[in-house]
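Justification of resources, computational component.

The compute hours requested in this renewal are based largely on the per-chain cost of generating structure records like the one below. Each record pairs the submitted sequence with a full structure-token output. That output is archived, and it is also reused by downstream analysis tasks.
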Amino acid sequence: MAYRIDDSCINCGACEPECPVGVISEGDDIYVVDEEGCIDCGACANVCPVDAPKEV
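The structure output for this chain reads:
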């Protein structure tokens, strides 16, 4: 499994520095996860104030 950031993202950037494998980056409107490199650790979900990262 991997995480994906949904449209509820408020573009705060809290998730990006928490990713231990560096697969979160700022997209056009929201942050995005490179799902292929995601290790399903949940660190991004643990810090997100709006619960935007979801398991896929």
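The mean pLDDT is 97. The chain has one domain: 3-55.
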